[in-house]
């Protein structure tokens, strides 16, 4: 059986609790102040819980918090500061990461993916999650899309490719005159100057050329 608990308070504390109970700043806080006042009148935890239709454990916890922390112990713990700080820190780091290539941080991919961003962020932010990262990306105007395609700078021109093919054919014909040769062909072979096009996260409206160009 839990040990009996009674709130022994001064007249000044009682007046403060009365003001809090009658204030309109917070219904929950006012009710908790009433728990303490009832306890100071000698009512047991069970009596208070019956009167207020609350669990005895709840009543006991709030009275104990008041005895330990005073009026501040009756107020809800702030749940706004930490999430806001977390989102701001995530946004700040995402801004920096997305300005650079994942390869700078040791990843193989050229475009940022959620799993890469999450892995990098967790090195400095313990409580970050994939949901937090996705929300931050969408809230601040980042979109997931392909890199713009463009042939590599050193890609041969149409004329250069034609000249190279003619040279290959001439070499084969010359060797065929000198001795018997075997020429192998691969059906449905495909050659392209365009690199594999990756996706990544970008600022809305931003255009990036593929990383291998």
Give structural attributes.
mainly alpha; two-stranded antiparallel sheet; 213 residues; single chain; rod-shaped
Short note summarizing the structure:
The chain has 213 residues and is mostly helical.
Oligomeric state, counting identical vs distinct chains: single chain
Structural class of the secondary structure composition?
mainly alpha
- Report the sheet with the most strands, covering strand number, pairing sense and barrel closure: 2 strands, antiparallel
Number of helices, counting only DSSP H or I runs of 4 residues or more: 8
Radius of gyration: 36 Å
What does this structure look like?
- The chain is mainly alpha-helical and 213 residues long.
- Among the domains are: 11-74; 81-150 and 197-203.
- It contains eight helices and two strands.
- It has helices at 11-22, 27-40, 45-52, 56-69, 81-97, 114-121, 130-139, 158-178; strands at residues 142-146, 199-203.
- It has a two-stranded antiparallel sheet with strand order 1-2.
- Helix 1 packs antiparallel against helix 2 (27-40) and helix 3 packs across helix 4.
- It is rod-shaped, with a radius of gyration of 36 Å.
- The N and C termini lie far apart (75 Å).
- The mean pLDDT is 81.
């Amino acid at each position: 059986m839990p040990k009996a608990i009674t709130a022994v308070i001064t007249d000044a504390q009682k007046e403060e609790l009365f003001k809090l109970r009658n204030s309109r700043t917070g219904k929950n806080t006012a009710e908790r102040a009433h728990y303490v006042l009832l306890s100071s009148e000698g009512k047991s935890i069970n009596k208070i819980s019956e009167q207020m239709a609350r669990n005895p454990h709840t009543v006991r916890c709030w009275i104990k918090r008041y005895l330990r922390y005073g009026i501040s112990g009756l107020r809800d713990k702030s749940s706004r500061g930490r999430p806001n700080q977390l989102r701001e820190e995530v946004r700040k780091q995402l801004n920096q990461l997305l300005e650079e290539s994942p390869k700078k941080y040791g990843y193989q991919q050229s475009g940022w993916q959620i799993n890469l961003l999450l892995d990098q962020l967790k090195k400095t932010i313990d409580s970050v999650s994939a949901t937090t990262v996705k929300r931050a990306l969408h809230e601040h105007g980042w979109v997931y899309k392909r890199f713009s395609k463009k042939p590599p700078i050193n890609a041969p021109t149409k004329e250069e490719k034609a000249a190279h093919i003619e040279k290959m054919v001439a070499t084969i014909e010359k060797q065929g005159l000198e001795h018997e040769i075997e020429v192998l062909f691969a059906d449905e072979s495909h050659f392209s100057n365009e690199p594999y096009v990756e996706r990544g996260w970008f600022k809305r409206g931003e255009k990036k050329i593929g990383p291998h160009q």
